[in-house]
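TASK: fixed-backbone design
INPUT:
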């Protein structure tokens, strides 16, 4: 997965948070990383190079946030604004896709020659959404693990790791959802990585993190990831009705939405969402799903008053995120009520009530 290490004869993938230990008392000191690679292998890592050929991170947090991909891969580059971006593909499973050494880049771009142009268009749409001319990162890395089947993504300060199924890419719906996955993880470079809940600024690695704002971090991002490929001119607007309809159907068919409120879903993520059992749908609701539904409700509510959810997101970025300041419930309520005063009372209700918000 995007959060587990994998090493074989074709490549290596190390999410460093899974394999690197913290040296007590050295968290905020610079950290250096050296690699001894097989002949013909390259390292793809969103860290600065050191004079000795290794890599250097400003501190422990930056080190373990960096995903490390190694292998005999080829790399494609493109620009978003003035920021260089790299794209690397590893193909697992099918030798006719991966070719020698698991490098699926040639196969991918031969089959979808416009893919990187589409990714760049999505990235540019993210910048427009945030009201900025360039990404928050100064150097960005995409790593795609192209498997027979699979789906997932994980955001980092200066990178995204994506897992996607080859067969899904073959369909129009699957390609659209791939672009939505790209949009979701790329938008996280603002909303989550830099504009982050107060409880994660900085992260306490030694005890559970209870984060009531995960609905905003993930739910709002999930809502916008459906809009961004359309804003990029890559998908027809009518597909939004299909995607929203599927989300609303899943939401209404989940009994747990009437048992667990959205705030509790966020707070209990570490013991419930990622430890779900067969009975989970009857007792809980995903803050991704219900958060996206609430984001739709908020956007419609704001638009009726001449505002928009994007305006609130930009405001939070300008006031808090770009300065590295975390947000709490009070900041979210203040930002939403500044755009629509009645949300000062409505938003806390929607976060804590078990009834469905009114569309």
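OUTPUT:
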């Amino acid at each position: 997965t995007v959060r587990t290490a994998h090493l074989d004869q074709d490549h290596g993938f190390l999410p460093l948070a899974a394999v690197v230990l913290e040296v007590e008392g050295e968290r905020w000191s610079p950290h250096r990383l050296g690699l001894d690679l097989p002949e013909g292998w390259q390292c793809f890592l969103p860290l600065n190079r050191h004079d000795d050929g290794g890599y250097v991170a400003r501190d422990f947090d930056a080190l373990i946030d960096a995903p490390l991909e190694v292998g005999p891969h080829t790399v494609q580059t493109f620009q978003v604004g003035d920021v260089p971006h790299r794209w690397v593909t590893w193909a697992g499973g099918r030798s006719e896709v991966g070719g020698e050494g698991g490098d699926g880049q040639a196969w991918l771009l031969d089959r979808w020659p416009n893919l990187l142009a589409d990714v760049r268009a999505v990235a540019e749409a993210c910048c427009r959404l945030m009201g900025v001319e360039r990404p928050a990162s100064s150097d960005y890395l995409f790593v795609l693990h192209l498997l027979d089947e699979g789906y997932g993504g994980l955001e980092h300060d200066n990178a995204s790791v994506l897992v996607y199924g080859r067969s899904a890419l073959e369909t129009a719906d699957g390609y659209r959802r791939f672009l939505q996955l790209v949009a979701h993880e790329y938008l996280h470079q603002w909303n989550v990585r830099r504009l982050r809940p107060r409880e994660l600024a900085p992260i306490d690695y030694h005890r559970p993190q209870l984060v009531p704002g995960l609905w905003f971090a993930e739910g709002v991002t999930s809502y916008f990831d459906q809009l961004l490929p359309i804003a990029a001119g890559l998908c027809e607007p009518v597909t939004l009705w299909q995607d929203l309809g599927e989300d609303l159907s899943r939401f209404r068919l989940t009994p747990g939405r009437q048992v667990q409120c959205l705030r509790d879903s966020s707070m209990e993520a570490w013991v419930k969402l990622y430890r779900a059992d067969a009975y989970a749908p009857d007792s809980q609701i995903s803050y991704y799903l219900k958060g996206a539904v609430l984001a739709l409700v908020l956007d419609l509510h704001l638009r009726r008053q001449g505002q928009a959810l994007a305006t609130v997101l930009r405001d939070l970025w300008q006031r808090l995120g770009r300065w590295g300041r975390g947000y709490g419930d009070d900041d979210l309520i203040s930002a939403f009520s500044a755009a629509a005063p009645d949300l000062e009372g409505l938003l806390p209700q929607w976060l804590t009530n078990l009834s469905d918000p009114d569309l």
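COMMENT: Residues 214-231 form the longest helix (18 residues).
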